[in-house]
């Protein structure tokens, strides 16, 4: 059977371009669309009749399923992801509908039954997220922006937090540091099993063990802009620390001021490495060596995959973890030879 991939190869375009032509997207030029239609005719490609019937009833809207944090946690990155998803959706000719509710499972079942959107992006993914089963049962096209322990055949797009943890530990280990402080999110975030926090911490602990680096974890009491108090508390409890890794957006933003108040010089007194969204790091001029999470790239790839899934529901499921670069800004002191 001829597939979209075959048509894309014949036309010399991407599979996504073929799906846009099939769905009648105005984003594709007539010249390119004609080339795709010629390839379809040559190969005898025909659109699935069920998919065609569904396409005539499309809403040209995608839903973003999120939830308000039960414990009142404030996430600096949330707005950046929502903006990125909305911008990517507009590029494909889709509107965006924000879907919130205390019961995410029921939200997904309801939106699938009412057919208010053509597909959904699921945010705030937990390692054992019950919403995944609701996606599978409803059959609604979906992409998880977050990597759970078992995606159950649902598409996943996210940053490679595992690789980021290994990269940061390796950066400090190569500098001669054998003991580090890990500044994490509030413990409630880990209790909620939010995948990005759980995955990064697990990989960091594994990397430290593999590289023979001691790690002491200290957790923020909240994730507001006052979260930098955790830095003062951590250094008070561990005054001989020479290195610190921060995975907590608010603590990263408040860290320069916290160090200044404490008279701590970076990197002379303390080496610091972080993981932070690129857009936040650049906007706040974060001066630390960081793995920068490109939220825009992750958001755009998530929506691209959802559009592909809407156009061709039978595609095999994928798990795409985007690797993010380590940006060196001179905040890690090399202890060799000291």
Automatic annotation (TrEMBL):
Keywords: DNA-binding, Transcription, Transcription regulation
One Pfam family here: Peripla_BP_3
Matches recorded under Gene3D superfamilies: 3.40.50.2300, lambda repressor-like DNA-binding domains
GO MF annotation, one: transcription cis-regulatory region binding
HTH lacI-type domain residues: 2-56
Alphabetized InterPro entries for the sequence: HTH_LacI, LacI/GalR-like_sensor, Lambda_DNA-bd_dom_sf, Peripla_BP_I
Protein name: Transcriptional regulator, LacI family
């Amino acid at each position: 059977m001829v597939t979209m991939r075959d048509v894309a190869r014949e036309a010399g375009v991407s599979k996504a371009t073929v799906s846009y032509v099939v769905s009648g997207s105005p984003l594709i030029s007539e010249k390119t669309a004609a080339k795709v239609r010629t390839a379809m005719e040559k190969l005898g490609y025909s659109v699935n009749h069920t998919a065609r019937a569904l396409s005539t009833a499309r809403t040209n809207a995608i839903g973003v399923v999120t939830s308000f944090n039960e414990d009142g946690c404030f996430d600096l990155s949330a707005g950046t992801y929502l903006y990125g998803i909305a911008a990517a959706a507009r590029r494909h000719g889709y509107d965006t509908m924000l879907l919130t509710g205390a019961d995410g499972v029921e939200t997904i079942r309801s939106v699938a039954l009412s057919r208010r959107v053509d597909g959904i992006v699921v945010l705030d993914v937990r390692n054992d997220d019950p919403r995944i089963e609701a996606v599978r049962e409803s059959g609604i096209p979906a992409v998880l922006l977050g990597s759970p322990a078992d995606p159950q055949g649902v598409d996943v797009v996210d940053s490679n937090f595992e690789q980021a943890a290994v990269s940061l530990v390796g950066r400090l280990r190569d500098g001669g540091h054998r003991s580090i402080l890990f500044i994490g999110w509030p413990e409630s975030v880990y209790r909620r099993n939010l995948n990005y926090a759980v995955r990064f911490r697990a990989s960091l602990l594994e990397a430290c063990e593999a590289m023979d680096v001691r790690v002491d974890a200290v957790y923020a009491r909240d994730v507001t802009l006052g979260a930098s108090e955790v830095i003062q508390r951590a250094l008070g409890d561990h005054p001989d620390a020479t290195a610190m890794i921060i995975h907590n957006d608010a603590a990263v933003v408040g860290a320069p001021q916290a160090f200044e108040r404490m008279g701590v010089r970076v990197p002379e007194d303390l080496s610091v490495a972080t993981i932070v969204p690129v857009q936040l790091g650049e906007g706040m001029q974060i001066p630390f060596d960081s793995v920068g999470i490109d939220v825009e790239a992750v958001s755009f790839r998530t929506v691209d995959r959802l559009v592909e899934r809407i156009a061709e529901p039978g595609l095999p499921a994928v798990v795409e973890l985007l690797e993010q670069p380590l940006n060196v800004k001179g905040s890690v002191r090399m202890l060799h030879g000291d």
